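Reopening this ticket.

The earlier resolution said the output was attached, but the attachment link was broken on my side. Pasting everything inline this time so it's all in one place.
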Amino acid sequence: MATVQIQRPVHYPESDGKPMAETPEHLEAMLYLIDALQRYFAARDDVYVAGNQFLYWVEGNPSQRVAPDVYVAFGVPKRPWRATWKVWEIGKAPDVIIELTSRSTAGEDLDRKYRLYQRLGVQEYILIDVRREYLIEPVILHRLVGGTYQQMPTEHPSDHEWRVHSELLGLEVVVRAEDEGYQVRLFDPMRGRTIPTGMELAEHAAEMEARLRELEAELRRREESAE
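Inline output:
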């Protein structure tokens, strides 16, 4: 009697149960970057922005995976949301990957991920050292040129600021030294402004609403005094 073998579908985990980020500084920077990039590309349906998800590049081998902190892919529909990124299904790797690196992840970020992203064709690989623990400059951009990464110059306009220009994003990634540590922001050179945080947007909206109420109250007072 012949034995029938049932091939079970390969399971690609969506989580490994580990913390979302290594430190509060890493978490704050990651959440800001994902949110700011999603808002910046909100009008485009062909740009996918996500992060802290597994990226699989070998079909049938779920052990071959990495979890980029932040990534952006062009020419990929914004919806539906993807729990993981499978290169063979989507047809490409992300175009831009940002890793919030640290001394404990240095070996992987500068070696394994560097070589992997280069091989997968990730056009820009950006490293941000949010605690300034080991990188000479707290933000470094590698751009794929002829199939090989080349490190682009990091601008250092002042003693407390470093920035790199992402050609693909059309933005500058800025790291500033503040009293409480290092702050990560995205600067839009076309509009000449920094993309605010969600909290800053909410505070601005609240200020505008309060100002509007003041103007409405002033208008009522003038109307009453004119009667």
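Reporter confirms the inline version is readable. The first strand starts at residue 47 and ends at 50. The CA atoms of residues 57 and 87 lie 5 Å apart.
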